[in-house]
Amino acid sequence: MKMIKYSILLFAIMSITACAPYKNIPKLESFQDLSYRVPVKKLQLKNSIEIAYTDEGNGSETIIFIHGLGSYIPAYNKIIPELSKNYRCIAIDLPGYGKSSKAPHSGMMSFYADIIHEIAQKLEIEKFSLAGHSMGGQISVVYGLSWPEQLNHLILFAPAGFERFTSGQKEWFEDIMTPILVHNTTYESIETNLAFNFYNMPKDAEFMMTDRMAMRDAEDFGGYCYAVSKSVGGMINEPIIDKLNQLTVPTLIFFGENDNLIPNRYLNPGATIKIAEYGHENISNSKLVMIPKCGHFLMFEKPGIVIKEMKLFIK
Q1: Is the pTM of this model over 0.90?
Q2: Percent residues over pLDDT 70 in the chain
Q3: Which CATH number applies to 2-314: 1.10.357.140, 3.40.600.10, 3.10.310.10, 3.40.50.1820?
Q4: For the chain, first and last CA: distance in Å?
């Protein structure tokens, strides 16, 4: 009974946990064996942190893409190929995720924002647009509050952080969301978790299920589990909900009308539109795009709408 409860909680908390079918699961020695659409490059940062990133396209505008909780660079497979025809598109694996290094860290949103700032400096990018999904959206807002002069635009895909949690709810999250819980997630829960990110999961998203199941046998899986657990703590302990009105960067906000993860259906049941409108109303220079028949993972489910709206907004 306890494991069933934990599986349901993981399904409710994670903004994106990649999942998988039960057959044709590849054997991974490490996360470095994950199959990405294009080869990654590596960047050495301070404190022995190694960042994996992809760098595609060129143009007057550079967009840096940040994935969500439990996710990785391939989260943007459906939009970067098209956007890279007009813009330089850089997607990163955050520390603890994908092909980046797995050493323990705080998981705080400000830690991740510092990583992005260091990446931009290392790559000598003076100004850019920052795009983030779910937890990546909350990280992007933290960056925008700290270094607004560096940004041309913020682009938020179903961002975390627009929802208020009580102190008791925060304590509950931290008590429950442990590395052991992430480590012991069953195949059934993995499959359910990913499906819950969509209104109608596309067939070409199934590789994320396969990858998430394959990760369980990788030698660096423990570092990933730790990063996911700490990231949940980072989101709830560095809230942005009361700082949204301090943002000055032009911001494009996307939400799927059928998002099953925001707001949290167990703790704060309600309509996604209310959360979306709250963020839009409190970010003065913002545009809100609500996508019908679309869930949390909107870049994969409705890439055409996302690409069109991003090009219009950047233009």
Answers
A1: yes
A2: 93
A3: 3.40.50.1820
A4: 53
* Per-residue pLDDT tens digits for 287-310: 999 999 999 999 999 999 999 999
What count of residues does the chain have? 315
Q: 254, exposed or middle or buried, with CB in 10 Å at 0-12, 13-18, 19+?
A: buried
Query: 């703590």: which residue's tokens?
Result: 233
Q: Residue 266 — very low, low, confident or very high, per pLDDT cuts 50/70/90? A: confident
Task: Say which residue the tokens 């590789």 belong to.
Answer: 207
Task: Read off the amino acid at residue 145.
Answer: L
Residue type, 176: I
Measure the CA–CA gap between 157 and 231, rounded to whole angstroms: 18
Helices (H) and strands (E) in the chain, counts: 12, 8
- Which pLDDT score, from 0 to 100, does residue 25 have? 86
Q: How far apart are CA 311 and CA 313, in angstroms?
A: 5
Rounded to an integer, what distance in angstroms lies between the CA atom of residue 106 and that of residue 306? 32
In degrees, rounded to 5, the angle at the alpha carbon of residue 133 between the alpha carbons of residues 218 and 100 is 30
Other Cβ atoms closer than 10 A to 195: 17
pLDDT digits (tens, 9 = 90+) for 13-31: 443 333 334 667 888 999 9
Residues with Cβ within 8 Å of 250's Cβ and at least 6 positions away in sequence, in order, are 152, 153, 154, 285, 286, 313
Q: Which of 146, 125, 156, 139 is nearest to 60 (CA)?
A: 125
